[in-house]
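re: that chain from earlier
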Amino acid sequence: MAKGFKNYNFEFDKNETRMLTSLCKQVIKQVQSNRDYYRIEKAFTAVLEKLNSGEDIVKLTRDEYTQIALHLKENVKFFNDKIKKSWIFKKWMYKSLLLQYQTILKTHFSD
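^ sequence. v structure.
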Protein backbone atom coordinates (compact mmCIF):
# COMPACT_ATOMS: atom_id res chain seq x y z
CA MET A 1 0.00 0.00 0.00
CA ALA A 2 1.40 3.38 -0.98
CA LYS A 3 2.08 6.09 1.55
CA GLY A 4 -0.40 8.92 1.73
CA PHE A 5 0.51 12.53 1.99
CA LYS A 6 3.34 13.35 4.33
CA ASN A 7 3.18 16.22 6.78
CA TYR A 8 6.00 18.72 6.18
CA ASN A 9 5.17 20.97 9.13
CA PHE A 10 7.94 21.17 11.71
CA GLU A 11 8.43 22.78 15.09
CA PHE A 12 12.15 23.40 15.52
CA ASP A 13 13.61 24.51 18.82
CA LYS A 14 16.06 27.42 19.02
CA ASN A 15 19.19 25.28 18.61
CA GLU A 16 17.78 23.35 15.65
CA THR A 17 16.74 26.59 13.98
CA ARG A 18 20.24 27.97 14.44
CA MET A 19 21.87 24.84 13.02
CA LEU A 20 19.52 24.71 10.02
CA THR A 21 20.01 28.42 9.38
CA SER A 22 23.78 27.99 9.29
CA LEU A 23 23.39 24.94 7.02
CA CYS A 24 21.19 26.92 4.62
CA LYS A 25 23.60 29.86 4.53
CA GLN A 26 26.53 27.50 3.91
CA VAL A 27 24.79 25.73 1.03
CA ILE A 28 23.58 28.97 -0.55
CA LYS A 29 27.09 30.41 -0.40
CA GLN A 30 28.51 27.29 -2.08
CA VAL A 31 26.00 27.07 -4.94
CA GLN A 32 25.03 30.68 -5.68
CA SER A 33 27.74 31.27 -8.26
CA ASN A 34 26.79 28.25 -10.40
CA ARG A 35 23.50 28.50 -12.30
CA ASP A 36 23.33 24.69 -12.62
CA TYR A 37 22.35 24.53 -8.95
CA TYR A 38 19.56 27.10 -9.16
CA ARG A 39 16.95 24.63 -7.84
CA ILE A 40 19.05 23.90 -4.75
CA GLU A 41 19.69 27.60 -4.14
CA LYS A 42 15.98 28.39 -4.52
CA ALA A 43 14.99 25.64 -2.05
CA PHE A 44 17.49 26.70 0.61
CA THR A 45 16.67 30.38 0.19
CA ALA A 46 13.01 29.59 0.79
CA VAL A 47 13.86 27.49 3.86
CA LEU A 48 16.08 30.27 5.21
CA GLU A 49 13.26 32.79 4.81
CA LYS A 50 10.85 30.46 6.59
CA LEU A 51 13.28 29.86 9.46
CA ASN A 52 13.95 33.59 9.85
CA SER A 53 10.24 34.45 9.82
CA GLY A 54 9.98 33.52 13.51
CA GLU A 55 6.86 31.39 13.18
CA ASP A 56 6.42 28.44 15.53
CA ILE A 57 5.55 25.97 12.77
CA VAL A 58 7.73 25.87 9.68
CA LYS A 59 5.92 24.52 6.61
CA LEU A 60 8.25 23.00 4.03
CA THR A 61 7.58 21.76 0.53
CA ARG A 62 8.60 18.25 -0.48
CA ASP A 63 11.57 19.58 -2.46
CA GLU A 64 12.79 21.66 0.48
CA TYR A 65 12.39 18.68 2.79
CA THR A 66 14.37 16.35 0.51
CA GLN A 67 17.14 18.91 -0.05
CA ILE A 68 17.61 19.49 3.67
CA ALA A 69 17.52 15.76 4.45
CA LEU A 70 20.05 15.04 1.70
CA HIS A 71 22.47 17.72 2.88
CA LEU A 72 22.12 16.69 6.52
CA LYS A 73 22.95 13.09 5.58
CA GLU A 74 25.96 14.28 3.58
CA ASN A 75 27.18 16.41 6.51
CA VAL A 76 26.83 13.46 8.90
CA LYS A 77 28.86 11.31 6.51
CA PHE A 78 31.48 14.07 6.13
CA PHE A 79 31.88 14.56 9.88
CA ASN A 80 32.13 10.81 10.47
CA ASP A 81 35.02 10.65 8.00
CA LYS A 82 36.68 13.73 9.52
CA ILE A 83 36.41 12.31 13.03
CA LYS A 84 38.14 9.09 11.95
CA LYS A 85 41.07 11.04 10.45
CA SER A 86 41.58 13.81 13.00
CA TRP A 87 43.27 14.27 16.35
CA ILE A 88 41.72 14.83 19.76
CA PHE A 89 40.83 18.55 19.60
CA LYS A 90 39.30 18.35 16.13
CA LYS A 91 37.48 15.16 17.10
CA TRP A 92 35.96 16.97 20.04
CA MET A 93 34.86 19.90 17.85
CA TYR A 94 33.47 17.69 15.07
CA LYS A 95 31.76 15.37 17.55
CA SER A 96 29.49 18.12 18.87
CA LEU A 97 28.50 19.18 15.34
CA LEU A 98 27.96 15.58 14.36
CA LEU A 99 25.68 14.96 17.35
CA GLN A 100 23.62 18.05 16.58
CA TYR A 101 23.20 17.09 12.91
CA GLN A 102 22.35 13.50 13.83
CA THR A 103 19.75 14.66 16.35
CA ILE A 104 18.05 16.93 13.81
CA LEU A 105 18.17 14.20 11.18
CA LYS A 106 16.76 11.56 13.50
CA THR A 107 14.10 13.78 15.06
CA HIS A 108 12.68 15.50 11.99
CA PHE A 109 14.05 14.04 8.77
CA SER A 110 14.07 10.26 9.22
CA ASP A 111 11.81 8.36 6.85
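The chain has one domain: 10-108.
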